[in-house]
Amino acid sequence: MQRSNKSSGGLVYSTDAGRMCPGCRRPVADCRCARVPVAPAASAGVRASRESKGRGGKVVTVVRGLGLDAGALAALGKQLRTDCGTGGTAKDGIVELQGDHCERVIAALSRQGFMARRAGG
After folding, report:
1. Residue 95 lies in a domain
2. For the chain, is the Cβ count within 10 Å smaller at the N or the C terminus?
3. What mean pLDDT, rounded, does the chain reach?
């Protein structure tokens, strides 16, 4: 199978510059084509849910839709873990807390200005 000269793929991430724009192939911070999707507002669709699938029956509280960068997400994860008195992690735009803490998380997020809602049952 022959590869075409017109490649729709390309460099997505560089260890030097981070994420790369697919349109102009520059770092996202220096993008000139404005084709990079903008992250949603921090209060647009924050959802807190309770999950147990794939975790050996252990329950975790998952917070999605925060739209924060890695540093701010880590700081918010630390604050939520402290408020709930539990362990957890903050990675890939998601905060996971060990245990069922949906109500505490929603209250803590609303104090910080997020419009958080419960997802699921």
Report:
1. yes
2. N
3. 78
* pLDDT score of 42: 46
Angle made by CA atoms 76, 52, 84, in degrees to the nearest 5: 35
Task: Tell me what the mean pLDDT of segment 38-45 comes to.
Answer: 52
The percentage of the chain sitting over the pLDDT mark of 70, rounded to a whole number, equals: 74
Give whole-number Cα distances, 10 to 24, 33, 88, in Å.
11, 16, 35
> Quick check: is 50 in a domain?
yes
Is residue 4 situated within a structural domain?
A: no
pLDDT digits (tens, 9 = 90+) for 7-24: 455 655 556 766 777 677
Q: Are 95 and 66 in contact (CB under 8 A)?
A: yes
Residue 89 scores a pLDDT above 80: yes
Range of the domain at 29: 10-38
